[in-house]
Amino acid sequence: MADQLNIVWFKRDLRVHDHAPLAQACLSGPVLPLYIVEPGYWSLPDSSRRHWSFIHDCLGELHAELAARGAPLILRVGEAVDVFEALRQTFGTIKLWSHEETGNDWTFRRDKAVKVWCRAHSIAWHETPTNGVVRALKSRDNWAAQRSQRMTMPLVPAPDRIQAPIHVPSQPRPPKSDPMFGDEILFVQSGGRKEGLSALDSFLETRASKYMQTISKPGISARHCSRLSAHLAFGTLSSREVEQATRARLRDLTEPDPGMSDDDAQSFRKNLGAFLSRLAWRCHFMQKLEQQPEIEFHCTHPAFEGMREPHFNADFFEAWKSGHTGYPLIDAAMRSLHVNGWINFRMRAMLVSFASYHLWLDWRQTAPYVARLFTDYEPGIHLCQFQMQSGVTGINTLRIYSPVKQSLDHDPEGKFIRRYVPELFNVSTQWIHEPWRMPEPPADYPSPIVNHDRAMQFARAQIAARRKKPDFQVEARKVVNKLASRAKHTDRDPPRKKPVSPKPKTQLSFDL
Ligand SMILES: Cc1cc2nc3c(=O)[nH]c(=O)nc-3n(C[C@H](O)[C@H](O)[C@H](O)COP(=O)(O)OP(=O)(O)OC[C@H]3O[C@@H](n4cnc5c(N)ncnc54)[C@H](O)[C@@H]3O)c2cc1C
User: Which of 21, 171, 262, 305 is deepest in the core (most CB within 10 A)?
Assistant: First the structure.
């Protein structure tokens, strides 16, 4: 009988470097590298053509890397169990290799179905961790140490040669324009490992020098943030290799360098330290989803169920989605997201805070919409951040961002606003943050959709009432024990500096 066939199932790990399942499968016999385009997945409300476009680039490069080693990528369109069953019928005995995935409910249920199918046919499925997420974790107490240990493990070299099975035809890669992937989109960041490595290099060499200084600025942050999120989400780079490259650069920065002053080297090191924290937050949030997949559909703290759902205002939702709320920075952030598929952390948080508090929209409606716009959609981070920025975890400090204060702080001259909201292009800096106060506001730009102060008061009162309910603290403690980080700040967005504007517009941040 022919050697057993080893199927390496590529999912959100589109690389051959530091890919343990591929390396292990190569030791076991002939390898069939497989990517499955699953129509069920692509019809979900949180998947989009933007994601496919990025993946499409990645698959092109992955195919070339694999082919150069002897076993080209085989692509199949269909549901996973059907695809595996067809391969089983062709090859008889197979073994399955993949990384563990912490995805949405659909991929979780699909993996369960694959497991059932494997069991029914006595097929071994070897799954390997891909980042800091620990499956079946009993307690969060030691999680940080386990993650650190994983991050320091040596990288797995890409195999030199891959023994291919007899010729297996691949289906063509569906084009980026295939209607299966949903609506048309504008620009998409290029995918593929070369792009990922180039972003990593330029960030570590130069761009990180202004990382923390610009991280919250809506325009310039696009240049000084790493822009690795989509590469990490689809695995063109492994989180371990990004972490190790950053630590190596940190070590270099302790050596005397005639091209850099000590102060600059120290500031660069601080920036890289902040970046490393975010890489850890990434795993931390994904770990939460791994432990509690229900957070895709339910508030982390049950007291917040039913709070916003009955009040859903479809007109508000439309205005927010299209960037016509009458708050310039909100509209500019949303419109820029439509164009670029990326915005910085602060703008993401502000957009969600505005939708959840000011417009009182349920996060379950807004989260999938934005997931489709983000090239870097990563369910674990996304869902946790949506819940946090909507005040429904019961354990995090509530932050209600004032759109006007954010605008004054982070786009003081209104450059970003003018770039994305052409109706305000000729508005002077004096009025750009609050055009409704102008003697003659632009006729083609809407008045504010809600009154900021009244909306905040309403939201605060609603949330306070829920927090006063009997048993609120008991439930909150359960959430802390199960999911919360044991480290300072790990669970939050970056610790905030005191406001610098002389008299800040009201911004609400309260611990109840
Ligand atoms: C409502 C909301 C939704 C978000 N959804 C996503 C998402 O779907 N996918 C995603 O990758 N990030 C998400 N983030 C986190 C963050 O905004 C992005 O990771 C970041 O802006 C990506 O740009 P970057 O790679 O240049 O980040 P950098 O600042 O260079 O950070 C490096 C990496 O660290 C991780 N990271 C950074 N910030 C955070 C954070 N606050 N929490 C967890 N991990 C972090 C990301 O993997 C990122 O690529 C979300 C934030 C909010 C407020």
Answer: 21
